[in-house]
């Protein structure tokens, strides 16, 4: 993926996603606040209307109190009470109604066709038996009821809040109600205004996201050229380091072959030719030259094995990393005379695994550095497994060096920097700690392997 597209994916898109998430969260919180405010407003308006209804019913009771308190229960007295209640209207749709406990309508000034009819079974559009519930509330001492009823001024069924009280001696239910469409209208107005505010907020966040995205994109594109140049330099440095490493490895192998194996083969050839000459001359001392030639041939075979072992340890392929490390340490101690303290655990790491090769090469390079540069008298090597991680540590008591060199091109071999690159390529880590008096290189590699035995 080209860098400018990476800038978009890694910078612009997360920024847009973050701003969008914030905008959505703000919108959700605002809608929740609108809902809460609507509920508070509705509760407050309903509380005011309940108080208003109670006041109206008290006025109605007061207006017929002289008739009800007279103790008369005759039809004329009830008719006079019904007349008074029918004339008591308020607002455009405010009126009083009365039913007897059987559901017979006694007073209904706005729908006179209902007077004298039994409405006990009447239900609103939501299936609520209105008259039955009003009678039940009155029988319980009075109360409020939400139901739907035709609004006189519009002729449409509208949500209504009713309040009733009993007139027990007359077996009447007296009440009034207030239509709640104004409450819903107020809530709708609040909802609309808050919706406009939410839309404005989301629009503002969108503008901010666009502007910020443009700025980030412009900044990323401004860095595009320099980043490409840096990447090119790093790529060239890496390519040069690889070429240098290969050339140095070839040079080392060529030097081993020329200085060691080639001279041994020439010596063997000389001894065998001399033996051949003596045999041709009939001399009896040809066996001595043949023996020297065979001895040289054995040395040559050992030299071939050494060169092959340096290129790739056969034990690493056949017996695995622990055995290859033990052989490497034995040869190191025999060659240098430096004491080796080894604690190598048997681990379940396949010999052909890239991790085994990487850890072996790190140990090989670290020991080479100790031999050439450290001036150490003792080396400690630890191979262990813990928490699904393999750890290889090589420590010496030498003169130390500046660990900052790990970030500079190495001078030879795979180098400290190449050690880090090789282990990090497999998801591991390399830690280098050095000071006068000692150096420790620790490589950790994630692995599902577990120790199979005690440390060696």
Quick summary of this structure?
58% of the residues lie in helices and 16% in strands. It has 456 residues and is an alpha+beta fold. The strands form two sheets. A five-stranded antiparallel sheet has the order 2-1-5-4-3, sandwiched between helices. Strands 6-7-8-10-9 form a five-stranded mixed sheet.
Distance between the termini: 48 Å
Tell me the radius of gyration: 50 Å
Shape: rod-shaped
Read across the widest sheet, the strand sequence of neighbours is: 2-1-5-4-3
What is the CATH class name of the domain at 313-456? Alpha Beta
- H/E order of the elements? HHHEEHEEEHHHHHEHEEHEE
The major β-sheet equals:
5 strands, antiparallel
Parts with pLDDT < 50 across at least 5 consecutive residues: 409-413, 449-456
Structural class: alpha+beta
CATH topology of the domain at 313-456: Heat Shock Protein 90
Strand content range: 15-25%
Helix count? 11
Total beta-strand segments: 10
**Helical amount among residues, as a percent range?**
55-70%
* CATH superfamily (homologous) name of the domain at 313-456: Histidine kinase-like ATPase, C-terminal domain
- Residue-averaged pLDDT: 79
From the coordinates shown, what is the CATH architecture of the domain at 313-456? Answer: 2-Layer Sandwich
């Amino acid at each position: 993926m080209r860098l400018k597209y990476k800038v978009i994916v890694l910078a612009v898109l997360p920024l847009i996603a973050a701003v969008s998430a914030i905008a959505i969260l703000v919108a959700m919180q605002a809608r929740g606040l609108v809902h809460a405010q609507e509920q508070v407003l509705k509760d407050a308006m309903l509380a005011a209307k309940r108080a208003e209804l109670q006041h109206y019913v008290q006025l109605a009771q007061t207006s017929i109190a002289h008739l009800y308190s007279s103790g008369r229960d005759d039809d004329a007295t009830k008719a006079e009470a019904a007349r008074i209640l029918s004339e008591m209207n308020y607002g455009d749709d405010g009126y009083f109604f009365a039913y007897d406990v059987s559901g017979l309508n006694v007073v209904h000034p706005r729908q006179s066709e209902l007077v004298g009819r039994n409405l006990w079974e009447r239900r609103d559009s939501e299936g609520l038996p209105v008259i039955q519930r009003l009678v039940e509330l009155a029988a319980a001492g009075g109360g409020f009821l939400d139901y739907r009823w035709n609004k006189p001024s519009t002729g449409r069924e509208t949500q209504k809040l009713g309040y009733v009280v009993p007139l027990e001696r007359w077996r009447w239910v007296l009440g009034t109600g207030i239509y709640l469409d104004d409450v819903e209208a107020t809530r709708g107005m609040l909802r609309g205004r808050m919706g406009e505010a939410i839309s404005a907020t989301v629009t503002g966040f969108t503008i901010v996201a666009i502007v910020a995205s443009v700025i980030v994109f412009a900044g990323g594109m401004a860095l595009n050229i320099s980043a490409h140049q840096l990447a090119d330099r790093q790529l060239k440095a890496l390519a040069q380091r690889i070429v240098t490493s290969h050339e140095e490895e070839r040079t080392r192998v060529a030097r081993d072959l020329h200085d060691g194996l080639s001279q041994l083969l020439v010596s063997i050839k000389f001894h065998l030719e001399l033996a051949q000459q003596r045999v041709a001359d009939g001399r009896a001392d040809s066996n001595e030259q043949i023996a020297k030639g065979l001895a040289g041939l054995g040395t040559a075979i050992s030299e071939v094995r050494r060169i092959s072992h340096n290129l790739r340890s056969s034990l690493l392929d056949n017996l695995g990393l622990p055995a290859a490390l033990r052989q490497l340490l034995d040869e190191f101690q025999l060659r240098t005379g430096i004491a080796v303290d080894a604690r190598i655990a048997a681990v379940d790491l396949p010999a052909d695994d890239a991790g085994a090769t990487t850890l072996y090469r790190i140990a090989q390079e670290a020991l080479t550095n100790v031999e050439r540069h450290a001036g150490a008298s003792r080396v400690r090597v630890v191979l262990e497994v813990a928490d699904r991680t393999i750890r290889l540590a090589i420590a010496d008591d030498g003169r130390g060096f500046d660990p900052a060199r790990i970030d500079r091109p190495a001078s030879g071999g795979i180098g400290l920097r190449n050690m880090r690159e090789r282990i990090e390529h497999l998801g591991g880590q390399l830690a280098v700690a050095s000071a006068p008096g000692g150096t420790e290189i620790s490589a950790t590699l994630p692995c599902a392997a577990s120790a199979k035995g005690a440390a060696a």
